[in-house]
Structure formats: C-alpha cells, structure tokens
Design goal:
303 residues; alpha/beta; TIM Barrel; globular
C-alpha cells in the first residue's frame, strides 16, 4: 500500500508548521473566498458560523460514494457541520445551514479518524472541510501519533481559496471538489457567490497541480489524485457543457468525473422555479453526451 503523503510531512516536522500557519489565518479569517476577516480564535463568527472548534454532524463508513473510494469496507466519512458556500438547494441542508452536530476538540477529531481506520475504511473523507482546515490538521497530528496511515479525501463544494489549498499540499492525497456552476447568475442566485466559477477553476487547477489525475490501484481503490463531481441541475442552470470543456481542456482529458443525476429540490429549492423539480432523463443524457463530447473518458463507472 502506498504511504499517505502526510506521514512524510509529519516526520519532517512540516505538518506542525502548516498547522501553525493555518491557525494564524483564523485570527482574521481568510480561509475561504468569503474573506470574512473575523477573529475565529476569539469566538467571532463569520459566514460559516464556526469558531475555533469544528462541529461534526456524524462519522461513519459510507458506501454511497464513488467506487474507487468505497471499495469493500467503505469510505470513512466525517460530515462537517456548517459550510462556507451554503447552496440554497443543499442535499444536506440540516447539516450545512442549520448546523446539526456537536463541537469537537482535536482529540475527538483524531479519535474519529482512528475509529474509521480500525473499522477497515479505505480513506478518511472530510465532507465540507473548507472552513475547518486548521481543526482537521490539529486532529490529524494526534491521529498520526496514534497510527493513522490511510489517505485523506478533501470533499468540498469547489469554493476554495488557492492559498488555503497550498497549506494542504502534501497532506490530502485525494481531492474531490464539486464544480457546481459555470454562469455567474446561477451561482449568485443559488449560492450568493457570483465569483464561484473563478474560484472553482483556480482551486481545481491547484488541486490537480498537487495530486494529478486519479490513480487507482490493482484492487480498484483510489490512492491519489483528483476526482471531480458535477451535479446536473434542472433547466441546464449549471451549464454542464462549459464545465466539461474546462475539465477536459484546461485540467486533463484524463480527469475522473462523476456526473451525478441525484438532484432533488431540498432546502429552499422548492421556492425557486428553475430548480423546484428533479432532472429529467433527457437532461441527464445530455449532460453525459456533453462530457463525452468534451473529450472526457473517465466517467464514473456506472455511467
């Protein structure tokens, strides 16, 4: 089994250095593109409504993720509460918007990682980690000292800041961002983030620079690389075709992409005419056609 890259950083003492830098960023928080500049270490709350400690909704062996992450024993998911993007249609609305969960200290975060590894999970998959990168690193150091040795997955909404990602270089072996919207109007209307596309493009470029295309071992498990998710939306509001062209031409034609059909109107979506229904079979078929037409060949296995 390939050794996770964070172990090398730990041995060199660089993991602690990265943690120190990340914590310092929270004094005037600039971890995500929202740039709230609140002092989270003193309890001030910004857009993500998270202070100095992370809040976790649940952790478990998850079998609903992509096949290269799930394997035989599941992906060890840790669902972080709250979010820095806050899509109005979020499928985990109670967790991201309402903050369902409990605050955890670094020891508890480490204990979750270790429990998932001992359960046989093939990786530790942080869902919505953007706003708690420092708290993850705090827990990671403690977990490494107690034997953690499986890959980490950064499972984000794609609204990430390059400077924060650079702090994570060599720590996460697998990046799994969404690319939600191409057009400014959709991102503004449904996420209050008109700058979503520019940040998602820059973030995915940086992620790919760090880890490259997804590498899958002989047993079918992902060991390192980039995996991009795209949720097909009703009425084409995500502009899937342009996103697929970007991935194929500006990232890599070998990018592993999961084009997802499970959109359903959650959260506040029922009040939005354009996204108040599930997608049709024709809309999904068009999205798959657009991905293939762009030159992408590594679509998630069930497509």
């Amino acid at each position: 089994m390939q050794e996770p890259s964070y172990l090398k950083l730990y041995r060199e003492g660089k993991l602690q250095e990265r943690l120190n830098q990340a914590i310092e960023t929270m004094r005037s928080c600039r971890l995500c593109p929202r740039q709230c500049e609140v002092d989270r270490l003193s309890g001030e709350l910004g857009y993500c409504r998270t202070g100095s400690r992370a809040k976790v909704a649940s952790f478990n062996a998850h079998f609903g993720e992509e096949a290269p992450l799930v394997g035989r024993f599941g992906s060890g998911t840790i669902f972080i509460s709250y979010c820095s993007l806050l899509c109005s249609f979020c499928q985990n609305f109670e967790i991201s918007h309402l903050g369902e969960g409990r605050e955890v200290d670094p020891a508890a975060m480490a204990a979750m990682m270790l429990a998932l590894m001992r359960r046989g999970c093939h990786n530790i998959n942080f869902v919505t980690p953007t706003h708690v990168a420092p708290q993850i690193l705090e827990g990671l150091i403690l977990a490494v000292e107690q034997g953690l040795n499986i890959p980490l997955v950064y499972n984000s909404g794609g609204y990430d800041k390059v400077e924060t990602l650079k702090l994570l270089d060599g720590i996460f072996d697998i990046y799994m961002p969404d690319f939600k919207f191409w057009d400014e109007n959709g991102a503004k209307r449904f996420c209050h983030a008109p700058d979503y596309r520019e940040h998602a493009m820059a973030a995915i470029r940086e992620m790919h620079r760090q880890v490259g295309d997804l590498v899958i071992d002989k047993s079918g498990l992902a060991v390192k690389g980039l995996l991009v998710r795209h949720l097909v939306m009703p009425h084409g509001v995500a502009n899937t075709g342009e996103i697929m062209k970007f991935l194929a031409t500006e990232i890599s034609a070998n990018t592993y992409v999961n084009v997802m059909d499970q959109y359903r109107p959650c959260g506040k979506a029922s009040g939005e005419t354009m996204i108040s229904r599930r997608i049709t079979g024709e809309e999904f078929a068009l999205a798959i056609h657009q991905a293939k037409q762009a030159g992408l060949t590594r679509l998630d296995s069930w497509v």
